[in-house]
Amino acid sequence: MFRSLKYTWRPDRQDLETFRLVKFFTLTGFIVIALFTAFLTLFVADRLQEMALKKSEDYASLLAANLNHQVFQQFVLPAAIRFQGRIQISEPTQYELLDTVVRNTIHGFHVQQVNIYDQRGDLAYSTDPIELGRNYLSVPEVKMSLENGERNVRLVVPKYMLLNLFFQFHKEKFLKTFNPLRLESLEIRLTPELGPVIGVFEITQDISHDMIEIGKFQLMLIATLVALMGLLFMVLRQIVKKAESILERRQEEQKELQAQLELAERLAALGEMVAGVAHEIRNPLGIISSTAELLRKRLEHSEGDSRLAQIIEEEVNRLNQTVTEFLDFARPREPNLQTCDVEGVLERSLEFLRPEIDRHNIFLNRQYNRNGHPLLVDPDLLYRAFLNILINAIQAMPQGGQLTVTTDPGPQGKGARIVIQDTGEGITSENAKKIFNPFFTTKDQGSGLGLSIVKGIIESHQGQITIESNFGKGAKVSIVLPEMEA
Ligand code: ADP
Prior knowledge:
Layout: H1 13-82, H2 92-106, E1 113-118, E2 123-126, H3 140-148, E3 152-156, H4 161-167, E4 174-182, E5 197-206, H5 208-298, H6 303-330, E6 338-340, H7 342-359, E7 362-368, E8 375-377, H8 379-395, E9 401-409, E10 416-422, H9 429-432, H10 450-460, E11 464-470, E12 474-481
Parallel strand pairs: 7-9
Antiparallel strand pairs: 1-2, 1-5, 3-4, 4-5, 6-8, 9-10, 10-12, 11-12
Helix pairs in contact: 1-2, 1-5, 5-6, 7-8, 8-10
The chain binds adenosine-5'-diphosphate.
């Protein structure tokens, strides 16, 4: 049984290291993806904001061109005629005219405020005329628009635009565009930007609403990203956990296997020793047995003495049985395969045990369903295996019970399936794990080798043996024997 055992277990350190490496790369990959996606999201959000601002700037630019045209057409020209070329915005009549023109032009546009600065940078007109006359040349955009006639833009928001968008929804945000106010002449009317700069328009747009919308969108984008990354992380964590548990289980299994193999090796060594000793014991035992038998026959006339000789004989036989079991266990022999019918072998075992079965008031129930189909087995070994199983069943029912022996064709109709079931004490789930271990016994006089020997015999026939039990209700031993080639 142990001859084929080899020490094959190796700790799977390489597997573990590979797994650790994979885990590391997976998590690093996850972090890189998360960071990349975060940057991408911020970039997209920023671009979106830029586009919205550009849209507002274009809007303001269009309005500025329109204002320039309207102011020139409806204020500068008429005022020049009406006031003999003396344009003085601070004069109430002129101011009123300009105010009407500006208000009519910006009517319907989303404009918060319009300021007009004169060539010196003084605030000449405002839709919110609180600080009229004040000089604004110190404002760089006013100065630059006056000097180089270009459009300048200023964004009026609290510091750190992105963060503000997230956390300061309530604060107002403005876009101020500074556009040069140019003179138009009839020839260059179609391209008014070519005329000389005579002032600056400051158009203030309230972009809070747009910015809030963008902020919301940014928040939504980031929330989606966080949720997605969270989900991805959870999935990854689950996968890693599962892989870890599989690896741990495999390690446990390997450890268990190693323990079993070590035990088996120790037992094999022990078995060799026991076999040697048992062999030496068997010869003198035979002599003691035959001498005791002779003695008993000679002392037949003296009842007391012959009883003593009989006891020696019985005990020697029992000892011989134990020694034989040790030998069977330690030196299992190769099966000597012959074609025979399994039911015949079963019958022989049952016949041998018939007195015991009757003595224990056990009801025997046989169901042979294989039609005596012959099978290639070692009848002697099988006989011994059946005997051991049947003895266990009988011993499990000291107060009587039912012993059922069934045979059926094996899986796919080939080989044989033998089931021996009793209604005895059964096996606890704790003991069920150990019953095939050599020397495991719950009996006072048991050797604990019976089932080990049975297992060895069945496996030498390439078969399988399983035992199911309901503690307190009995046990069921199932054997499957395949159809073997001669
Ligand atoms: P032994 O019979 O010498 O104890 P075995 O290897 O044949 O050795 O059996 C090991 C143990 O398995 C028994 O001690 C017993 O506890 C349990 N066992 C085996 N067969 C049965 C059965 N049919 N019913 C209850 N217990 C059983």
